[in-house]
Write a structure and sequence with these properties.
Radius of gyration: 21 Å
Bound molecules: fe (ii) ion
Order of helices and strands: EEEEHEHHHHHHHHHHHHHEEEEE
Structural class: alpha+beta
Largest sheet: 5 strands, antiparallel
Strand content: 5-15%
CATH superfamily of the largest domain: Hypothetical protein af1432
Number of strands: 10
Number of helices: 14
Helix content: 40-55%
Mean pLDDT: 82
Shape: globular
């Protein structure tokens, strides 16, 4: 099949990528080689401000994994089970805020090479794991709202919530939930050893800078291994969180089962939070757009864990206001347990004040285009 090189801004729906398309500053693969370009992915590429050229070929007959897997998810006919999320309780909110402060303190002290111990951050991990064991939904909702916008520290908090919730859905025992949560809080602590002009650079990193950036994984590992009581699983999760299933990651270019399964969970949480958070150089993707990017990374991320993540995350909490592609504004009133990306939305007519509901599971041409955060 013919492969051509075109400018990224000339990509059109229907084209098939012949190479991975990456978000330059983070190196995250936005779309894998073989992905078919759609209107939605074009929007994501635009938001990520990806520039330069890429290789594509045209192939209508090639159905990509992304498309077929998403279709499969959409076609799952599950009973609509309302998942009610009450008002966020103050205790969980306090835990979220306190964890943020603890992480900030730990990272700041680490960057100044002050003596640090794991006591506080370990206690925070224990509390998050306990809260998620009771119910993952409250903390997931807080992670969704992303009320903390200091990326370095909020990323650690959100990743720890996502990875612990995912581990809970896989039925990890309590002790391991606590440990993987701690791995989530500490996975990027080695970034304090990377020069700030590289960590905070809004433009694309040069090849040399990216090589320096990659080292944060080794630095995180080195910093964490010196603490007593840190498990091998935790260290492997941290050391391998940028490895990818197809061998395209770093530091060791490990493949498939060579990658520790905790690191595979951490990779999903890490990528999802990175792409759904506002950064200096681009706006956040909407939750469902983030989920689609994850699915398009299915060759890179563990597909079984990814499916569990997509099925269980809270992309649109009950009560959340959304804008539909029809232009209507509605409120999410219930979620499908296995299809959280296609909720039931209630619309109030402006004039008559009458309400009607749209079930997005049955209206596949209607989709959420925005979230209104109040
Ligand atoms: Fe990282």
């Amino acid at each position: 099949m013919k492969v051509i090189s075109i400018c990224i801004d000339q990509l059109k729906p229907g084209m098939i990528l012949a190479e991975d398309l990456r978000d330059s500053p983070t190196g995250i693969v936005l779309l894998s080689s073989g992905s078919k370009i759609t209107e939605k992915t074009l929007r994501a590429i635009e938001q990520f401000n990806v520039q330069g050229r890429c290789l594509v070929y045209f192939a209508d007959q090639n159905r990509t994994f992304t498309e077929s897997s998403l279709k499969k998810i959409r076609q799952e006919k599950n009973k609509q089970i309302p998942v009610r999320i009450g008002k966020i309780n103050l205790q969980a909110k306090k835990l979220y805020k306190d964890t943020y402060k603890t992480v900030k303190d730990f990272y700041n002290k680490s960057s100044m090479n002050k003596t640090v111990d794991l006591y506080e951050i370990n206690k925070a991990a224990e509390s998050i794991a306990a809260e998620i064991t009771r119910s993952p939904q409250v903390l997931l909702q807080l992670a969704f709202l992303k009320t903390i916008d200091d990326y370095t520290f909020s990323h650690a908090v959100h990743v720890s919530i996502y990875v612990t919730a995912l581990a809970k859905y896989i039925n990890f025992p309590a002790k391991q939930l606590h440990e993987i949560c701690l791995a989530g809080l500490l996975h990027d602590v080695g970034k304090v050893d990377i020069p700030l002009h590289i960590v905070n650079k809004p433009e694309k990193l040069s090849d040399e800078e990216f090589e320096v950036m990659k080292e944060h994984v080794r630095y995180s590992f080195n910093r964490v291994r010196d603490f007593s009581g840190v498990s091998k699983d935790m260290l492997n999760a941290i050391l391998q969180h940028h490895e990818r299933m197809d061998g395209s990651g770093y530091l060791e270019k490990l493949k498939g089962s060579e990658i520790h399964h905790w690191a595979r969970l951490l990779a999903i949480a890490d990528v999802y939070d990175a792409i759904t958070t506002d950064r200096v150089y681009r706006n956040a993707l909407l939750p469902h757009e983030g989920a689609e990017i994850l699915m398009s990374n299915s060759g890179k991320l563990d597909i079984q864990y990814l499916n569990i993540f997509i099925r269980n995350m809270i992309f649109y909490p009950v009560g959340c206001k959304v804008v539909l592609s029809t232009g209507e504004i509605g409120t999410v009133i219930s979620l499908h347990r296995n299809m959280p990306l296609r909720p039931l939305v209630q619309i109030v007519d402006k004039d008559s004040k009458k309400t009607h509901t749209i079930n997005l599971v049955n209206n596949l041409t209607t989709f959420i285009t925005d979230i209104i955060k109040e």
